[in-house]
Design goal:
Number of helices: 6
Largest sheet: 8 strands, antiparallel
CATH superfamily: q2cbj1_9rhob like domain
CATH architecture: Sandwich
Number of strands: 16
Shape: globular
Oligomer: single chain
Length: 262
């Protein structure tokens, strides 16, 4: 359970670290299962595209930068299915967005050793657009994070601006949504290092990013997305797909149809 000080901190700053949501044993199991999924299912690619890459990386580093990713881990693993319904975690989310909480997605983000992917400043809203701010992303930490391996960084209070227009097109064509690097700078953000087993929660509208992983070990995070079931999604990842209700009850609105399981 969060206390008033923690809730006020989240509402004011747009993010919150919650220590040791997962026990050492739970974290070990999640990490082992994630490593197995990396071997069996995940993809390693150059990651996000766009002109921001040359703003933060020299040519040699840019060519080497990689990202290992995979969606919906809870559909592949019992351990990760249990993780998204973790009682303590779900309880904290309900304190921040209301008693009814729906899981939207899970996504693996691993920064491989040495040149693990850098993320420019952005909001998550462009990737799964919703009507309002009753949506929280949760980063489950399977490794300690710090400046060397690319901990998450935030622009304090930036969620209060609501959804911002992101760069999606360049002269070369479509690119991954991001904010202008000359206006929203990583160096102006606040680092939020965390320990394995910790989670870091933030609003769908909080501007964030992270530097390269320059260590000889991977930096392993998994993102959970939770929303109020009546916060309607209008575009992006998993649009139109109902999610698992992890807290409360899906209230029926007048004229609302049964969920479409397609």
């Amino acid at each position: 359970m969060l206390d008033k000080e923690q809730i006020d901190f989240f509402n004011e700053n747009g993010f919150l670290r919650i220590p040791q949501v997962f026990t050492a044993g739970e974290t070990d199991e999640l990490a082992d299962t994630l490593d197995q999924m990396v071997d069996d299912w995940a993809n390693t690619t150059p990651g996000w595209s766009g002109p921001w890459r040359r703003s933060y990386m020299d040519e040699e580093t840019e060519k080497k930068a990689k990202l290992t990713a995979m969606h919906d881990l809870h559909l592949y693993s019992e351990a990760w299915c249990r993780a998204v319904t973790n009682k303590n975690l779900v309880c904290t989310i309900s304190q921040l967005i209301g008693r009814n909480v729906e899981l939207h997605h899970t996504t693996m983000h691993i920064k491989p050793p040495q040149t693990g992917h850098l993320f420019p400043m952005h909001q998550d809203h462009p990737f799964y657009e919703h009507d309002d701010g009753r949506y929280i992303d949760v980063l489950v930490h399977l490794d300690d994070t710090n400046a060397e391996n690319g901990e998450i960084r935030f622009l304090v209070g930036s969620h209060k601006q609501g959804a911002l227009v992101h760069i999606r097109e360049t002269e070369a064509g479509a690119c991954t949504p991001h904010l202008p690097t000359d206006v929203y700078r990583l160096e102006d953000s606040v680092p939020v290092p965390a320990k394995r087993g910790d989670v870091v929660c933030f609003s769908i509208h909080t501007i964030h990013g992270s530097y390269l992983n320059r260590t000889d070990k991977p930096r392993r995070l998994v993102r959970f997305g939770y929303r109020d079931p009546h916060n309607v999604q209008t575009a992006g990842q998993s649009v139109g797909r109902p999610g698992l209700l992890v807290a409360g009850y899906r209230q029926r609105r007048e004229g609302e149809e049964l969920l479409k399981m397609v």
